Structure formats: structure tokens, C-alpha cells
Amino acid sequence: MQQMENGKLQFSTPVSRDRVISKFPKWYTPQACLQMKDHWHGRVRSACKDRAAWNAGMKMSKVVVVGDLYVGKTCLINRFCKDMFDRDYKATIGVDFEIERFELSGVPYTLQIWDTAGQEKFKCIASTYYRGAQVIITVFDLADIRTLEHTRQWLEEALRENDPGSCFVFLIGTKRDLLSSAECQRTERDAIKIAAEMQAEFWSVSSKTGENVREFFFRVAALAFEESMLRALEGGAPLTSEPETSSELTAA
Ligand SMILES: Nc1nc2c(ncn2[C@@H]2O[C@H](COP(=O)(O)OP(=O)(O)OP(=O)(O)O)[C@@H](O)[C@H]2O)c(=O)[nH]1
């Protein structure tokens, strides 16, 4: 249940049990990962323990999902947020968003996940929502190599609206259920090279079967949460924003 108080979103219900992250989530492959450690940063761990983190209030990170049309952005988000998969294609018109609440190391944290349209004619609307992203997820279809080549351009456009170095970047290959394991390995090798160039973390998933989808979003939540917490503890401006106002949330 969410309510508005002083223009901020407040949640009165507890975080669902399947959104509780106690162990630091691991990467997909060490060849293209943003961090190799498998534990919470020491300062974050102690802040969470002594509840200092709670004083900073509930935090929210903005995540934007970009990539060519038909690569599976909406299905990826729907598999995680609603545990559903739709085999029929319905193009995203402009943007859409989901709010996902987590509990990390005992502290509540929220991701605002923006699904953007891949179709050229909607790009103009969608790109106005790139600003303020802490996480950029660039998506391609493992079964269509051209969509991998276009991820650089999508990233460049998303970064144009954000401070350089202020975003975590992920490169996600979808539809792995459509490939044999040999085909998958071949495409993943190419993707890992591009991920390295983009300084992105690579994941290979299937929204149809759900393979790696939950693990991937847990990793996103953990990295964004830890970064925000470190920033808050250092007293600098956190990369994350406070929950946005209802007018912004309903703008889509
Ligand atoms: N087999 C399989 N099909 C998928 C998977 N993910 C998406 N699809 C299918 O791919 C098509 C496009 O998926 P969407 O999620 O709508 O694609 P999108 O990237 O959001 O497209 P736009 O909204 O136009 O940008 C749909 O028919 C989906 O059912 C997957 O993991 N496996």
C-alpha cells in the first residue's frame, strides 16, 4: 500500500519475503562484471546493523531500460515484477514504469524501473525519461546479433542525459531459451567484448523461462543500494533520488 506524505511516497506494507536480499548477489560472469566482491562493503554492513541506514530514510533508485524494439524489455520487467510472460508482442508507447520494493541487509530500498519504447517514432518521448538514472540497462536479443550492435548507441543516448560516471550500466541478452548452448556461448563471447567497451556488466536471461531474471534484478538492487548508502554515509549527494512526486510518477 503506498501513500503520499509531504509529496513523498510512503509504503505502509512490509516488503514481500521474496524481495529480501541478505547475501550480496553474485555476478553472471567474472569476464564482464562491475564488481568482483561477494559481500557487502564493511561500512554499509555496519550502518545496516546499527540502523544508521534507517535514519537516511527510504531511498529509491531510478533504473531505465533501453534497447531496440522487440528485444524483450517489457517481458524482462514483467517476468520480474509480475512473474508473467506474454508471447504476444505489444509495443511500448513512450514509457511505462514499475515500482519494486526490496529489503537489503535489513534496510528497505526501492527501484523505480522505467520501460522505454524501442520504436524510433517513440524515441523522442522515451528519451526525456532518461535523466536521473542510477542504473542503465541496455537490452539486446541473443537471437538477433544486430540488436547487440545497437546497444552502444542506446547507451550513448541514455548517458547523454546523465552525469558521466554516475550510472551503473548493464548489458542484457534476452531470449536465451531460443538458442542452443553452443549458439548462446558464441553470442555471449561477442557480448562480453562489447560489455567491456561499455564498462557494463553482462547477463544472459530468458523471460520466457525466468532463467537468471531474479538473480539479475537482485544484483541491480544490491549495487544501487550499496552505492547510495556509501554516498549517504560519506555525506555527499547520493546518486539516488528520494521517491519522486506523484505527478512525476503518473507522468507516464
Ligand atoms: N522466446 C522468448 N521470447 C521472448 C522473450 N522475451 C521476449 N520475448 C518475445 O519477444 C517479443 C517482444 O517482447 P517485448 O518485451 O514486448 O519487447 P520490447 O523490447 O519491450 O519492445 P518495444 O516495446 O517495442 O520496445 C514478444 O513477442 C515476446 O513474447 C524470451 O525471453 N524468450
Structural write-up:
With 252 residues, the chain is α/β, with parallel strands linked by helices. It has a domain at 58-231: Rossmann fold. Helix content is 34%, strand content 23%. The protein contains nine helices and nine strands. It has helices at residues 42-49, 52-55, 73-82, 123-127, 145-149, 151-160, 181-198, 213-234, 246-249; strands spanning 2-5, 8-11, 20-21, 59-67, 95-104, 107-116, 135-141, 168-174, 201-204. It has a seven-stranded mixed β-sheet, with helices on both faces. It has a two-stranded antiparallel sheet with strand order 1-2. A hairpin with a 2-residue loop joins strand 5 (95-104) and strand 6. It is globular, with a radius of gyration of 17 Å. The protein starts with a strand and ends with a helix. Mean pLDDT is 87; it is low at 237-252. The chain binds guanosine-5'-triphosphate. This is Ras-related protein Rab-36. It catalyses: GTP + H2O = GDP + phosphate + H(+). Belongs to the small GTPase superfamily. Rab family. It comes from Aldrovandia affinis.
Task: For the structure shown, list the relevant keywords.
Rossmann fold, 7-stranded mixed sheet, two-stranded antiparallel sheet, disordered C terminus, binds guanosine-5'-triphosphate
The rounded distance between the terminal residues' Cα atoms is: 20 Å
Low-confidence stretches: 237-252
Average pLDDT number: 87
For the record, the CATH architecture of the domain at 58-231 stands as: 3-Layer(aba) Sandwich
Structural class per helix/strand content? alpha/beta
Ligands in the model, by name, code or SMILES, are: guanosine-5'-triphosphate
* Name of the CATH class of the domain at 58-231: Alpha Beta
Instruction: Work out the radius of gyration.
Output: 17 Å
The CATH homologous superfamily of the domain at 58-231: P-loop containing nucleotide triphosphate hydrolases
Shape, per Cα inertia axes? globular
SSE succession = EEEHHEHEEHEHHEHEHH
Task: Identify the strand order in the major beta sheet.
Answer: 3-5-6-4-7-8-9
Question: Could you name the CATH topology of the domain at 58-231?
Answer: Rossmann fold
Estimated helix fraction = 25-40%
